[in-house]
Design goal:
The complex is a heterodimer of chains A (246) and B (221).
Chain A: H1 2-10, H2 14-46, H3 60-87, H4 90-122, H5 130-151, H6 155-169, H7 172-182, H8 202-234, H9 239-245
Helix pairs in contact in A: 2-8, 3-4, 3-5, 3-6, 3-8, 4-5, 4-6, 4-8, 5-6, 5-7
Chain B: H1 2-17, H2 19-40, H3 44-66, H4 69-76, H5 79-85, H6 90-119, H7 124-151, H8 158-185, H9 191-220
Helix pairs in contact in B: 1-6, 2-3, 2-6, 3-6, 3-7, 3-8, 6-7, 6-9, 7-8, 7-9, 8-9
Classes of the chains: A mainly alpha (246), B mainly alpha (221).
Chain lengths: 246, 221
Amino acid sequence: MRQSIIHWFKFASPQSFYPLAGRMIPWFWAATAAFGIAGLWISFFVAPTDAQQGEGYRIIFVHVPASWMSMFIYLVMAFWAGLGLALNTRVSGMMAQALAPTGALMAALSLWTGALWGKPMWGAWWVWDARLTSELILFFLYLGFMALQAAIDDPRRADKAGAILALVGVVNIPIIYFSVKWWNTLHQGSTINLTKAPSMAQTMLWGMLLMALCFWMYSIAVALTRVRAIILERERHTEWVKHAVE
Amino acid sequence: MSAFLATVRRDLLLALRRKSEVLTAVFFFVIVTSLFPLGIGPEPVLLKKIAPGILWVAALLATLLGLPRLFSADHLDGTLEQMALSPSPLGLLVAGKILAHWLLCGLPLVLLAPVLGLQFDLDASTLGILTLALFLGTPLLSLIGAIGAALTLGVRGGGVLLALLVLPLYIPALIFGAGAVEAHIAGLDAGGHLSLLAAMLVVAGFFAPWATTAALRIALE
């Protein structure tokens, strides 16, 4: 037991996490490619044409995973931020900082693909529906988090201030999920339901899940790459970074 | 508790010695709400429809205007550090400062809202709901805003950054606050919206002073 605790905290140090992240990144890129190829193949060639929405529905294979990841990344970011605040580990704060741009990208992608889907289906690029609005708020929260971190010069203070903001913003995540029940407007009900059987064809579900895994692996790979850059930047005064860069 | 009341009294006294700062936010509220009819046109039906939203957005911006002052003066002259070192818990003093901020920036808006509502041709019962919604909502705005004010304390470009951090968090309050009035105008029961607003106020009242204190301690490090 004692052994395992020591083992895990070893990677809380930037010096030992840097090479570990470097070793993990190729694996996650490989997984991204594998899941991406399988997911795209199913979504374009295997999944049947939707009876009502035609071929246009296929954008959900990008839209839904991006929405999921944008919400999930915020939770992960808040988890790392909270961990950094509680245990005062430096890599946790760096992880939170590294995840924010990817989360913002996913939120932007989700809004953009949603608009592209909404134009042919609803006849409008944008409707003021609860889920769209919450996704937009989530995007603003990411921007606020990044702006706050960028505005504070001392990286340790930036990490802690960002952590508090991330934890406060987590309140927004349940609102996103419950918004469908709170306001019932133009947006169709949740397509995937944990209690009911999914209301879509089995192959469509597989395509979506594979694409979600692809996005997940991509997010991890990119976040690890970014965290390596942040480690190098913040630890540039140390001896090991000089050796690592050489 | 005496430390809490002493903080409230101190902040109120300081504000009353310099009334212009408080009155600025109030006049801002009045002017912004009066600008909308000028921009949109004097049609009573349209104005009545958009009145709840306008009054709420104006109240939200007016609250935001007073937020940077919440901690900055005390931070500059070192009072805040003394508060952090004092034997009474910092969270209690922060709660006192937030209450004083609401009494100075929020309560005047609540009291003015019925008068401004008349400009938009709202009837008496709607004005009552509007005032009640603002009465529940403006303390919520002060509580959430205090977290942002503490996070941006002494940070470059603090004012704009504060708006960027706080405004997204204000959206649920805006939706339910304006929604209560709109529901009442539409002939529906506003109770649900008001209950949700009250619930959010209770949750924020518990967590926000705590989060603000944590943010202040980071800023004071």
